[in-house]
Task: structure prediction
Amino acid sequence: MALRLNLYHEVHKAKALKRRDPLKITIYGLAALAACFALYYFAQLVRMHSINDRYVKVKAEFDHLEPQAKAAKKREDELTKETSTSAAMVKRIEGRFYWAPLLAELTQVVPRDVQITRLGGEVTGDSLRHCALNIDGLAAGADPRRVAEDLRTAIAEKLSSHYKNVTSTFKTLEDGTETVAYNGKQVSTATFAILVQLTFGEDKAGAAGRKKK
Result:
């Protein structure tokens, strides 16, 4: 039987201990960790460089488009102002009061024995418009006061079919000091002043309140 003797076991043991040296293993581990951090730093550096390039390009585009954007915004403001002005004018035109239809209806109820000597009126309000009409005149006949009263009533009835809240009241009604020739006869006269008030349009505030209910 052959016998083998290992005369270098101490040397081998020393080499094995050297390979398993904790300090050496730690150094290797730290070196590997440092390499990982270096790779991560390099990757982040490349990423930041890419982001910076993108930022430079975007900023260049923004600097190029900014004057155009400011000009477009200025033009938009001008167009908005013009549109608002046009809308206000259209609204005013659409909501204006037409005197011709009102006067046409008045002429239909004024009889031959009444002469209108003065006519004036005004319109106020925005959505709900208020109209006040002053009618001065001279009534003639056997009972001129009755003629004036019939005219006042006829005005209220005629306008109520087209307007809202129509009222027709005498401001003054007095006997005239002179007579006039009517149908070949001298008849008495009476002077009158009638105030006609009416409304048209819609009260937006009231309409909004009704919708909420």
Summary: The mean pLDDT is 82.
